[in-house]
Write a structure and sequence with these properties.
Layout: H1 2-5, H2 9-33, H3 43-61, H4 67-90, H5 92-98, E1 103-107, E2 110-111, H6 113-119, H7 123-132, E3 141-146, E4 152-156
Antiparallel strand pairs: 1-2, 1-3, 3-4
Length: 173
Amino acid sequence: MSDWIYTNWTSATAIAFGVIMVYILMVGLTRLAGLRSFSKMSPFDFAMTIAIGSVLASTAVFKKPALVDGAIALTVMFALQYLVAYLRKSNAGFASLINNQPRILMCDGEIDYKALAETKVTENDLIAKLREANVFNFAQVRAVVLETTGDISVLHSSDDRELFEDRILKGVN
């Protein structure tokens, strides 16, 4: 039991060294690949952020994977992230394969129950998001969009509906 609670100076020094090295590598890779590496603009981005965090944590604290193995894994993950971002930007077909399409869940105060069912969003989830956005009644809602990231955006106003630009919904089904 004491092995689980206590450590020795050799192990503590190795962990500190590993954390410092992985930290330096992460700073360098982030500078090369850009901050988008940690975004959640798409499900792929989000999954990569989780995977990078997992490799980072296990490399810094555990003996396996070895520090060099973890560095290789992180470098390959960043390279894949960069490649997918490049392909999404330059190839519309690839982008549509990787990205989810945003969906309208509510439009002009009316709930689209078919869209809720297809996206597995409950009416209670939708109403909770309306409350978060300080919506007082459905008439205030211009649109509720399930974004490609899984986030829900609520577009509403208290009165000036003519200020809403339809192009804000460009590309939304």
